[in-house]
Amino acid sequence: MSRVFAYCRVSTDNQTTANQVLEIQTAGFAIEGQRVIEEVISGSTAAKERPQFSKLLERLESGDVLVVTKLDRLGRNAMDVRSTVDDLASKGIRVHCLVLGGVDLTSAAGRMTMQVLAAVAEFERDLLIERTQSGLARAKADGKKLGRPEATKTKALVQEQKEMKFSQSQVAAKLGLGIATVKRHWKV
Asked: What residues act catalytically?
């Protein structure tokens, strides 16, 4: 009998995988708690470099089914997603994606659909990066200062304390600053 696993991934700590787990259960997949693999990591990180996904790969056996809610849970890079699905298929593991109607990504139709959607997702990500870079270049050309604003007041306070022969850690405690901030302003 095949075992069913769920891989649920979010990118940041302030997000939760609860909706993904609920979607998988609502779709009719009965998954035991220990087979729900949850991870907080960027989708741009290759699947095999993700700690929880790597542990999952060690647990999966031929005949098992891996369920994801969306293709981008596996990754944002089309080549990585394809490689991951191909590796799983070669081990006899089926991969189902709910947003694609629960299609088995290891089937011929599933592979074709996955490749098209993964390529579109990667294209969208690349467009976002291009737009961001273009916006930053335009802002810089318009004379806008990018990055952290200069902390002249903080720098002056740190220098004043330095002249009074306080140590960096004493200055940090006295001014309520982090030691990294004090070190940044220590040398003029």
From this structure: 11
